[in-house]
Every structure is written in structure tokens, then in C-alpha cells.
Write a structure and sequence with these properties.
alpha+beta; Arc Repressor Mutant, subunit A; 2 domains; 10 strands
């Protein structure tokens, strides 16, 4: 499902020139607007999603902004401070006098989709804190590149504009690199139950679902916790258990390698030899000779 901006406004005195230039990316909508303004233009805007407003070009000196319809508006020079971040649901009023025309970039984004792409939740305090009319050369440079891609009659690969827009959001919200979370380990009883089960059943294919069920965890949680506890994945523990049995048989019996391979759950002698050499470093035959030397 394509994300679409959800916005309400009541404005007057604006005439769009040439239609809106819109690009849709993964959870992000970028619009470039060229508008002519009457002697007075203004109104209010409110969006159900967070958005960035960047003034790219303006002719005329006037511009006023206020947060409520009853508040006294103040003159703001949008040429010096052209960038605003407006949180979801925040109503912003604007009064424009002596502005003849302007071009601006609007970027709306879906917080759930962007959080999923960043693989972490965005700090709610950053999402809810407005940043109205500020200046930042790096943000403005990114915005100009995004706008150029919106206006490009032959757009580049989606990853280009998408990456620029996502970088713009990250920069404005100051989303830092998350510290890696330390994986929790299995409780001692969970580890004992899982390893005993693996060793008892190592000759057959053990499903991850079985091991997770023994410990009362989801398959993903169990897999990560097992590796955090042992340093290896469950399937590797099972392979090691098979190899331990094979080593005992190599030392304690005179069975042929084909028989030992069958007794320890390997497909055939070639499979047994390949796995043994990969994990032990030498072939089963050479390992056996080394034990009796």
C-alpha cells in the first residue's frame, strides 16, 4: 500500500503554477510546489503525519507565521530561515503579504514505515518537538537535491531520491546510530534442557520449533539466546554432538567409515568425511590413526 499524505488546510490567495511535482518513495512523499501569491495569501495547515517544509525560492519580502488564529503573527525572513519541521497534528497559520511567488518542498513521512526501515523506533520527543523556521546549510543542500529529483523529467533510480529524503529526515530529527543491543542468554535450565535434547536426538533432524517449545520461547528469541549462551547456533551444536559420537565410534570400534556415517546421522561416507574435515581439520581416517599412534 502506497503511503499518501493526510493533510487539511484552509488557504486563500495561492495559485499553483504547472501542477504539483510529486515523488512517492517507501513511506515518504515529496512535493515541489510553485505558487503565485495574491497581495494577501495565507491560512492554516494541519497534517496527520510529520512533515518538513523547505522554502527553496521566494520573490517578495513579506512572510508571517503564527501558531493559533488569535495569536499575533511575527515577521519571519524565510530566505534566512527557510526550513521548518512540523509534528503530526500541529496546526500552523501563515500570513503572507508582499510575497509575489515562491517554490517550496514539502516532505511528509509515515513514522511507522520509516522506523521499520531504520530498524528502531524514532524517539517520540523528537517527533513531537516542532522546529519552525531555522537554517541549516546541509539540510538545505539535501532539500535542493530532493527537489531537483522531483522536478527531473527522467527520474533516476528510486533509491537515489529515497535515500536523499531519508537522509534529510534523519538529519533534521538528529537520529543517531543506535547502540547494538546485547542479546539475552538462556536461563541455566533452558540451556540444559535444550542441549540434553539435542544430544539425545542428534541423529535425526531436529526442528528449531521443538527446541523453542522446550524453553517456552519464540523460535527467533531462542535462536539468538542459544547463540549468546554457547557462541554457536543450535544446528552447529547438533553437528558437534554427531561428531563427538563419531569420534567415540572411531576409537572404540572397528566399524567401517560407511557404517559410522550411517550410525551418526550423516547421509553417506562422503558427507561424513566432508563435515568431519571441515570441523576437525583432518579426515576421519587420519584422525583415527592419530589417536592410536
Amino acid at each position: 500500500m502506497t503511503f499518501q499524505p493526510r493533510m487539511q488546510n484552509k488557504i486563500q490567495g495561492f495559485s499553483v503554477i504547472g501542477g504539483v511535482h510529486r515523488r512517492l518513495w517507501n513511506g515518504i512523499v515529496a512535493d515541489v510546489w510553485d505558487v503565485e501569491c495574491a497581495s494577501y495569501a495565507g491560512g492554516y495547515y494541519v497534517s496527520r503525519d510529520p512533515r518538513l517544509f523547505i522554502m527553496l525560492d521566494k520573490r517578495g519580502p513579506g512572510s508571517r507565521i503564527k501558531l493559533t488564529p488569535k495569536a499575533q503573527s511575527t515577521v519571519q525572513d524565510t530566505e534566512i530561515r527557510p526550513i521548518s519541521y512540523v509534528p503530526a497534528g500541529m496546526e500552523v497559520w501563515a500570513d503572507l503579504t508582499d510575497v509575489h511567488s515562491m517554490r517550496h518542498l514539502d516532505i511528509h513521512f509515515d513514522t511507522e514505515t520509516v522506523s521499520r526501515r531504520l530498524m528502531e523506533d524514532i524517539d517520540p520527543s523528537r517527533l513531537e518537538s516542532p522546529q519552525l523556521l531555522f537554517s541549516d546549510e546541509r539540510v538545505l543542500s539535501l532539500a535542493q537535491l530532493v527537489a531537483a529529483e522531483c522536478l527531473n523529467p527522467e527520474p533516476l533510480h528510486d533509491l537515489y531520491g529515497d535515500g536523499l529524503a531519508l537522509a534529510l529526515i534523519i538529519d533534521v530529527l538528529k537520529i543517531a546510530k543506535a547502540m547494538p543491543r546485547k542479546r539475552s542468554r538462556l536461563a541455566s535450565w533452558q540451556l540444559r534442557r535444550a542441549t540434553e535434547f539435542i544430544e539425545e536426538n542428534c541423529l535425526r533432524n531436529i526442528r528449531l520449533e521443538e527446541l523453542a517449545g522446550l524453553t517456552g520461547l519464540s523460535q527467533s528469541h531462542f535462536s539468538h539466546a542459544f547463540k549468546a549462551s554457547t557462541g554457536i547456533a543450535p544446528h552447529q551444536w547438533q553437528t558437534n554432538s554427531r561428531l563427538d559420537r563419531a569420534k567415540r565410534l572411531l576409537v572404540e570400534s572397528e566399524n567401517a567409515l560407511t557404517a559410522i556415517a550411517a550410525e551418526t546421522g550423516f547421509a553417506d561416507q562422503a558427507h561424513f568425511t566432508r563435515v568431519f574435515r571441515k570441523h576437525v581439520g583432518i579426515t576421519p581416517a587420519n584422525w583415527k590413526k592419530a589417536q592410536v599412534a
